[in-house]
Amino acid sequence: MSLTVRVHRSLSEIPRAEWDALTNHLPTPVFDWSWLNLLETAGGLDADHGWTPLHLALWRGSELVAAAPLYGRGDSWGDFVYDFAFADAAARSGASWYPKLVGMCPATPSVGWKVFVRPGEDEVGLQARWFDEADSLARRVGAASLQANFTEPSWSDSVPGPWRRWSHQNFVWENRSHTDFDGYLATFDKNQRRNIKRERQSLADQGLSLKVVSGDAIPDSWFSLMGLLYEKTNDQFGPYAARFLEPSFFTALGAIRPLLSFSATFQGNDPLPVALGFLLGKNGRFVGRYWGEREHYPDQYFNVCYYGPIDETIRRGWKDFDPGAGSELKVRRGFRSDRNVSLHRFYDPVADKLFASYLGRLNRQEEARIEALNAAVPFRQE
Predict the structure, then answer these.
(1) What is the pLDDT of residues 288-344, one digit of tens each?
(2) What letters, b where the CB count within 10 A reaches 16 and e where it falls short, cover 116-151?
(3) Are residues 164 and 183 in the same domain?
(4) Do 19 and 121 have their domain in common?
(5) Per-residue pLDDT tens digits for 65-78
(6) Among 119, 184, 254, 367, which residue's CB has the most CB atoms within a 10 Å radius?
(7) What is the CATH number of the domain that holds 257?
(8) Could you write out the DSSP letters of every residue in 165-221?
(9) Cβ atoms of residues 339 and 367 within 8 Å
């Protein structure tokens, strides 16, 4: 049976069972139907907020055989690739940078985008067909470029076609077959072992406790609390805040309980968390998304956002923890730096030339930065 190409204006147009047949095996939760659909339907990451769903899918009859999340964009806010300087330079040069078609999970700087293919199908052939159709779609809608962010590293370097490849650094915590948190501590040099122990003990010294709560054990009241803490955290950063989600998103989180965990601190017997860190988890990987605190305590951030999820990753025997975008404070806590790639195909020759003229230098700088960050992780010398 021949293939049918469809462009879906919302993920809800694709039956969940069909999408999940492509993504259930992936080592990341951020492309599950339940998560992407919640972002579109309750999170405000839709056409009215600058994310126009154009999910390109290949069907064989009623069976979905290949697809990937794709969005029309008129700006770069929430892409986390930070191409704003290029967009400004293109505008000054009379070139078009927008609109563009972007493949990614909206407002989620987590690695793993690729063209998803149903297991057992011709992966190489279907991915090539998908890209041909994406190229045609971009030209039909008048896009200035076709772009894919946070692509799966083991996959993106082999993607054929006239792509510009831009290197980016991301943090990851890897479970080196640790059996407990003390085993993780043993990988550090003496000075940093002492520092991490002090930061962990700091909670107890202030009367706080830490635990990770998952799935059905999460109280319903925590969802709206997470929304309030999300707003409070973003209020601290003014115009530089990463405020992408609507309050309705957090109250709807119960719909995706199997993916959810919260790292939480408590003061004494008070059942209401002092701080919450919001995690997605699946197939051996945790992904950190949002955090906030009702009341500030020293070292609370490190425990909620780093040590709690690390401890839970070890306890489950999972492979890794992606903490999301953030500061180089992660280096001292054992997070290694990886390289991920964004793919860019330009339809404006001036924009393409502008991008290409800087790309080599940018990639060399980023790869040198990754090497320097990894050299600075204070692991014990064997």
Answers:
(1) 999 999 999 999 999 999 999 999 999 999 999 999 887 899 999 999 999 999 999
(2) bbbeeeebeebbebbbebbbebbeeeebbbbbbbbb
(3) no
(4) yes
(5) 999 999 999 999 99
(6) 184
(7) 3.40.630.30
(8) EEEEEEEEEE--S-SSHHHHHTTB-HHHHHHHHHHHHHHHHTTEEEEEEEGGGS-TH
(9) yes
